[in-house]
Every structure is written in structure tokens, then in C-alpha cells.
Write a structure and sequence with these properties.
The chain has 230 residues and is of the alpha/beta class. It has helices at residues 32-41, 58-67, 83-91, 112-125, 166-178, 186-191, 213-227; strands at 3-8, 26-27, 30-31, 46-53, 73-78, 99-102, 127-133, 139-142, 145-149, 156-165, 198-201. It has one domain: Spore Coat Polysaccharide Biosynthesis Protein SpsA, Chain A, CATH 3.90.550. A seven-stranded mixed sheet has the order 5-4-1-6-10-7-11, sandwiched between helices. A two-stranded antiparallel ribbon has the order 2-3. Bound molecules: cytidine-5'-triphosphate and magnesium ion (MG).
């Protein structure tokens, strides 16, 4: 089933501390941004990529798109102050009768197989997210003391991509904008409509590259995939 994808790539990568957008950092010699874009470039179901970038990265990103022959960019939009603003700017360019995915440029290990399951679920229910069961014991705390142990069996660690009927995501963003609500993912905006969101179980290796040690994990994931020919 065809889908379009909005890829927010307009962050500053402050926690990575590289002094530039972390998406430019290489993994096995190829920029993180390109690893992520290649997944969608190679997926026949993906009808177009809407990439949100910051003006300071524009020249460099454009030359990378050329160098690595990424042809599926249907629009380049300007990023905003928050990730949510970048996604909103991307939404202005989506086709309203199609499923739209939002996927962080900083998650290069997403598998097409998971994307397809997600798109299927979103086309049936209007909204779906990729998540994995929480492995750690999670506690709520107050003033440095444990307040409560949260029942783990109902907890999920949420990733991207997240997929929605485009009209649903647009409604959610417009409502959030009106009410000045900022969420850390698209689902949190859609839940507020309210509109149901289903969960597709993904993989633990679909990590978001956030801090420097994540780059070691990333190299290890790439090595493992190379060895197993995935
Ligand atoms: N992003 C964006 N626009 C913003 C902020 C973030 O498009 N205003 C993008 C990032 O480029 C990244 C994704 O949203 O692909 C997830 O954000 P995050 O991992 O927090 O990246 P950064 O915001 O770049 O990192 P940091 O928060 O450490 O500065
Ligand atoms: Mg950020």
C-alpha cells in the first residue's frame, strides 16, 4: 500500500555534542541521514519523502542527496523551532487521501517489513505506531524517593515511524497548535483528538541516535546486519 513519509531532520543534535547536525556523522562511512533515506528510497511502496531541514544545513544536505542519488524527495521544507513544528511544516505538503508516516532521520535502522505492517494498520484504524515492550522495571519517583512501581506488562517504549491517515494527523496538529500543546511524538497529538492508535511491535535495534555512545551501538548493529546479510 502506498504511503508518503515526513522525515524531520532539522534538529541541532545538541546531545550528540558533535558541533554540527548529528545526521551528518558517518556510520560505516555513510552519513546517518543517508542510511535513513535509503530505506525509503529503496521501498517501492514509498511514494515520496518530505524532508524537513534547517536553513544552515541546506547546502550540505542538497549535495549529499545528489552524491548518494536520493531521488524520492518530493519536497524539502524548512524545519521549525521544535520537532513538532518541523513535522507540521512537512504536513503542509502531504497528499490528504494517502497514509502519511513520520520517521525521525535519527533512526537509520528501521526495516521496510515493519513499515509495511505499520502502514497496513494505519490504513485500517487511522493511526498506528511502532513500539517495543519495556525491558527495565520502571518506577515513579518524587523528591528522589520511589513513589510507585509501575506495572511493566502494560508499558511500551515508543519509536518512529508513526503512521496516520493524513487527514487525522492534520487535524491532530491543528488542534495541538490551537491549544499550544507540544508533544514528543505524533501519537500524543492524535490521542488528544481523540482518535485510536494501534501498536505494531518493532525491533529493539531501531534505536534513535541521540548521545555519543549510541554511535557504538549503531556500528555494532550495522556489523551484525552485514554478517547476517540483512
Ligand atoms: N528535529 C527536527 N526539528 C527540530 C528538532 C528535531 O526536524 N526542531 C528532528 C531531528 O533532526 C531528528 C528528530 O527530529 O531527526 C528527533 O529529534 P532528536 O533526536 O531530539 O534530534 P535533535 O533535536 O537534533 O537532537 P538534540 O535534541 O540532542 O538537540
Ligand atoms: Mg531534539
Amino acid at each position: 500500500m502506498p504511503y508518503q513519509v515526513i522525515i524531520p531532520a532539522a534538529g541541532q543534535g545538541k546531545r550528540m555534542g558533535a558541533g554540527k547536525n548529528k545526521l551528518l556523522l558517518p556510520l560505516a562511512g555513510v552519513p546517518i541521514l543517508i542510511h535513513t533515506l535509503r530505506v525509503f528510497e529503496a521501498d517501492a511502496e514509498c511514494s515520496g519523502i518530505i524532508l524537513a531541514i534547517s536553513p544552515s544545513d541546506e547546502q550540505q544536505f542538497k549535495s549529499l542527496l545528489k552524491e548518494y542519488s536520493i531521488h524520492k524527495i518530493s519536497s524539502l521544507v524548512q524545519g521549525g523551532k521544535e520537532r513538532q513544528d518541523s513535522v507540521f511544516n512537512g504536513l503542509m505538503d502531504v497528499r490528504l487521501n494517502e497514509i502519511v508516516l513520520v520517521h525521525d532521520a535519527a533512526r537509520p535502522f528501521i526495516k521496510a517489513e515493519t513499515v509495511h505492517k505499520l502502514v497496513e494498520a494505519a490504513s485500517q484504524g487511522g493511526g498506528a505506531i511502532v513500539a517495543v515492550p519495556v525491558k527495565d522495571t520502571i518506577k515513579k519517583a518524587a523528591n528522589g524517593r520511589v513513589a510507585e512501581t509501575v506495572e511493566r506488562s502494560s508499558l511500551w517504549s515508543v519509536q518512529t515511524p508513526q503512521a496516520f491517515r493524513a487527514s487525522v494527523l492534520l487535524e491532530a496538529h491543528n488542534k495541538a497548535m490551537r491549544e499550544q500543546f507540544i508533544g514528543t511524538d505524533e501519537s500524543s497529538l492524535v490521542e488528544r483528538i481523540p482518535h485510536p492508535v494501534s501498536i505494531i511491535e518493532g525491533d529493539y535495534d531501531n534505536i534513535k541516535l541521540t548521545t555519543p555512545e549510541d554511535l557504538y551501538f549503531a556500528e555494532a548493529i550495522l556489523r551484525k546486519r552485514k554478517e547476517s546479510g540483512v
